[in-house]
Amino acid sequence: MVRQDSNTSTSARSESLSHDRNTLHVPVSETLPTDMSDTTESEAEKQSGGCKPAVCSSPHEGRKIIRAIIPIHIDLLFTLLFTNSKFLLDFYAVRRTTSYLAMTSWQQDSQTGNKQRVVTLTMPLNQSVGPKSTQVTETQTMMPCSKPGELYAIDTESVNAGIPYAD
């Protein structure tokens, strides 16, 4: 069994980016504020509707895969990536990385109170030795700091089964 823990958070606020090979920058409309550091407190409050902006409480342990600014509303991005959307199903189909895919809907965990969903898929393996596929079970947990319309922090735990000596 292989365990991989990673944290994924998505924020509607824009951040300055370093130019490295793991950075993807999608042009943001000129009408959207890109840097709140040059605004006064009252202007920042106007941008956030008078409320304090959401802050992610996750430590973000693990390896950074990509950092991107995507010029769409945060709720639409969440819907595209973390629901049973046509976009996500098409994404898996184009990648051809799964022969089986099942997703539960987001449900409240009775023990933690956090929303969770489980994604199960079968991924083909292209190694000359070992099994030809693996069963992946991904548990996605919405962190308590998530605020619709502002910030979604999703903790993802993946477990790959059926690979000898992988634990």
TrEMBL record:
One of its GO terms (cellular component) is endoplasmic reticulum-plasma membrane contact site. It is found in: Membrane. Keywords: Membrane. GO terms for molecular function: sterol binding; sterol transfer activity. This is VASt domain-containing protein. PROSITE patterns: VAST. Residues 1-57 are annotated as: Disordered. Residues 61-167 form the VASt domain. PANTHER family: GRAM DOMAIN CONTAINING 1B, ISOFORM E (PTHR23319). InterPro entries: Cholesterol_transport, VASt. Transmembrane segments: none annotated. GO terms for biological process: intracellular sterol transport. Residues 1-15 have a biased composition (Polar residues).
